[in-house]
Amino acid sequence: IPMMAADRDRIFDSFKRTVLAVVQGLTLTALAQGVLVGLALWAVGVQFSLLLGAVACLCAFLPVGGAALVWVPAAVALVLSGQLVAAGALIAWGLLVVSSVDNLLRPYLISSQARLSTPLLFFGIICGLRAFGFIGLFLGPALLATFAELMRTFRELYAESPS
């Protein structure tokens, strides 16, 4: 597609901005989830809660399972040790707070920086994961933002002026 250098720069900037937004959004969300899981584990008396919070932070980067890979086994261990109230509190905290952070904070952080709407961002992440695997988590939204910028440029260059 013939275009000016400024248009190319704008398209590449959109790609870079979106990849950076996804990385920052994933990192901040994972940190928040790790802290929340670590605090919950500490509050219910699980040993090594700081270490488990750090592991939850790392697991939060995984598209499937995430931080639940840490707090669910901890809740099961609490049930098996007879601490039902602590297990119930941990399960409620994990489902209501930790999962909400993943579902609310991540799209907000990414969409605000990437200049994509949340539904479009969600579509890009899901399709990217489906098409490219884990790297699609970054590549899907970036390609979608690049395509949107290409369409914007195409409309500006080739749109008929109203008569």
Keywords:
163 residues, mainly alpha, elongated
Characterize the structure shown:
The protein has 163 residues and is mostly helical. Helix content is 81%, strand content 0%. Helix 1 (5-43) packs antiparallel against helix 6 (136-158) and helix 5 crosses helix 6 (136-158). The longest helix has 39 residues, at 5-43. It starts with a helix and ends in a 5-residue tail after the last helix.
List how many beta strands DSSP finds. Answer: 0
Main beta-sheet strand count, sense and barrel state: none
Q: Helix proportion of residues, in percent?
A: over 70%
- Uncertain regions spanning at least 5 consecutive residues: none
The gyration radius over C-alpha positions equals 21 Å
| Anisotropy-based shape | elongated
Estimated share of beta-strand residues: under 5%
H/E topology pattern: HHHHHH
- Tally of separate helices: 6
Q: What is the residue-averaged pLDDT?
A: 87
Give the SSE map.
Blueprint: H1 5-43, H2 49-59, H3 68-80, H4 84-114, H5 118-132, H6 136-158
Helix pairs in contact: 1-2, 1-4, 1-6, 2-3, 3-4, 5-6
Summarize the structure.
The protein is an all-alpha fold.
